[in-house]
Design brief:
It is built from 18 helices and 23 strands. By secondary structure, it is an alpha+beta fold. The longest helix has 30 residues.
């Protein structure tokens, strides 16, 4: 209790505000939330017609007992995408680029695989809107100690990876969040300006906006003592880390600087009485256009810089951010001329950051959005019943895993649809029109059904798309996994039993796959003793995992061969062969999905 009282007192002292009363109220509530959620510190700012407020709570550095200041420098992760997007729009406003510029032509050194290239190339617009059809990120692009602050951006798109820039949906038709896409925008800026994208944006976007304490350049705690230390759960410190895809999430800023950015983004593109970003582009910052879901009537989605989000009874233009040791969020409400930003130096899977979002929405006294009512007439919803699979999923490497655990299923219930999932609570979808539905926790239509050019039924919430799938297909994969695991457990337990019973003839049939499975402990040991940031690097852990998983089907085939060669067809031998086949079929399935051998690194 004493620590909480001391923390509250110190944060009140550090506050720099426009309105002492409202700022103190924010500070008290923020302090309570970050204490309950296990966050180390927080800085924030709000913007209204009456002015702006910046505040802070908690600590910037626990080891040094440094309080968080309102002007503390923070990493903000993907919030940087919204800022970078305005830098791209600045180039367009200057006539040096256009929304329809063909990126595949502009960056000929990259190995794009676009089946729709003839009619739908990747454009600047599709990259900004996350509709280029690219996957999100590969593990080695994300968790690696190889990149430096000055690693060329094209190193993130090694040409020897033929599927790295494979376009999975026709550009412009479907939203799919992509860190790769925004890294490409960094390369687009460099191709047009002939300078590092960081230098261009710092000098031509941040400087004119007066954001003097912000930068796209890599900044570490060692180089800049004003940068807060990052933390994970349980106050585990995390220093700044350079990444391959840095345009997608490398940006350092302060709460006061973000008030300047939000103030500009809420305007019409004018700066000091002159057009800085053309007004038509500013109207497109958060409005989805051109996607199949939008054409079907859904107005929730992503624009050129923000996503339209319907949360806590209001609709705003928002963008979340997360990076190593930090978590942030920004949301604008153009109709009311208001906005808020917050950044925490804690990246925690255990914390409920939505409590902070709800706090600032309430603090801005935003009017509730009118709730769109249910349809007056009754429509038949039985055609929508069934299993739906992510299409596409976020990371191609984990497509099978997402198929097994990320699916949803719908069933009609009276006047609504029930959406069930293994990963979240049930949702109730009220029918607004024949194909439009509204989540009962939202105010606006949130889901839409539509049919693509191939005649397949899809469901979109503006940010995720699901394709109606087959229960038989899902059962096949679940059955394959179950049988494979049973086979693996059988091999391990029977081999150990026969070793103890000195049944060496029976042990001979299972010894090789058993040793192979036991050897999985080697990479497990190495992984436990290396940094999680090395997960995508070629280390002892990853190389041994690749070797062990590559050998598994070979050792299983060797054991199966020994079973077939035996002249004495005992029940025990036949049983061994059946369970070996069960394990082997799982290897085949994993191999077809590119998961065997298990490789998350590249040279």
């Amino acid at each position: 209790m004493f620590k909480k009282i001391l923390l509250l007192f110190l944060t009140l002292v550090s506050l720099q505000v426009v309105s002492d009363e409202s700022s103190a109220d924010y500070t008290q509530q923020v302090t309570k939330i970050i204490t309950n959620e296990g966050l180390v510190g927080l800085s924030w700012s709000t913007v209204t017609d009456e002015g702006s407020i910046s505040g802070s709570a908690g600590y910037a550095n626990l080891a040094k007992s440094e309080l968080m200041k309102p002007g503390q420098k923070m990493h903000v992760g993907s919030v940087s995408k919204s800022v970078l997007a305005l830098g791209v729009l600045r180039l367009i406003s200057e006539g040096r680029l256009s929304l329809d510029t063909n990126v595949e032509t502009l960056l000929p050194q990259l190995n794009f695989k676009n089946p729709w290239g003839g009619r739908s190339p990747i454009t600047v617009r599709s990259l900004l809107e996350h509709t280029a059809g690219l996957e999100n990120v590969r593990m080695w692009q994300f968790l690696s100690t190889q990149p430096t602050p000055h690693t060329p951006l094209e190193n993130a798109f090694a040409s020897n990876f033929s599927t790295l820039l494979k376009v999975r949906t026709e550009p412009g038709t479907q939203y799919a969040y992509s860190n790769m896409g925004y890294a490409l925008l960094g390369m687009v800026i460099e191709a047009v300006t002939q300078q590092d994208y960081e230098a261009y944006l710092d000098n031509n976007l941040l400087a004119p906006l007066g954001m003097r304490d912000s930068s796209f350049a890599f900044i570490s705690q060692q180089a800049d003592p004003l940068l807060a230390m990052g933390y994970h759960e349980h106050n585990v410190p995390q220093a700044a880390v350079p990444t391959y895809l840095r345009p997608a999430g490398q940006f350092t800023t302060t709460a006061p600087d973000m008030t300047k950015f939000m103030t500009f983004a809420l305007g019409d593109g004018q700066l000091n009485g002159e057009t800085f970003i053309s007004s038509p582009l500013m109207t497109m910052l958060a409005h989805p256009q051109g996607t199949d879901a939008h054409a079907a009537g859904l107005n929730i989605g992503h624009g050129l810089a923000f996503a339209t989000r319907d949360r806590h009874g209001v609709v705003g233009h928002c963008h979340p951010g997360e990076t190593f040791g930090f978590h942030s969020f920004m949301c604008l409400f153009p109709g009311e001329g208001k906005g808020f930003f917050y950044a925490s130096n804690t990246d925690s899977e255990l914390a409920d950051y939505e409590k902070l979002t709800a706090l600032f929405i309430h603090g801005l006294a935003l009017p509730s959005a009118p709730i769109v009512g249910a349809a007056e007439k009754t429509f038949d919803t039985t055609a929508f019943e069934g299993i739906y699979l992510l299409s596409p999923n976020s990371m191609a490497e984990f497509e099978l895993i997402d198929r097994l655990f990320g699916f949803i299923w719908l069933r009609p219930a009276n006047d609504h649809l029930v959406m069930k999932s293994l990963q979240s609570e049930d949702k109730r979808l009220v029918q607004v029109s024949d194909k439009l539905f509204r989540d009962t926790e939202r105010t606006q239509p949130s889901h839409v059904f539509y049919t693509n050019k191939e005649g397949e039924l899809l469901l979109s919430d503006g940010l995720k798309t699901y394709k109606k799938g087959s229960l038989t297909d899902l059962v096949f994969y679940w059955l394959s996994i179950a049988l494979g695991l049973i086979g693996i457990v059988y091999i391990l337990l029977l081999a150990l039993y026969r070793l103890g019973a000195r049944n060496f003839s029976g042990l001979k049939r299972l010894i090789w796959p058993c040793l192979n499975l036991v050897a999985v402990g080697i990479p497990a040991y190495f992984y436990a003793h290396q940094s999680f940031l090395e997960f995508g690097d070629p280390t002892r852990a990853s190389l041994s995992l690749t070797l062990v998983t590559a050998l598994l089907p070979i050792t299983l085939l060797l054991s199966l061969r020994l079973c077939f060669k035996s002249r004495d067809k005992t029940k025990s031998l036949i049983r061994d062969a059946v369970f070996i086949l069960m394990a082997l079929q799982l290897c085949v399935v994993l191999g077809v999905w590119g998961l065997l051998p298990t490789i998350f690194w590249h040279w």
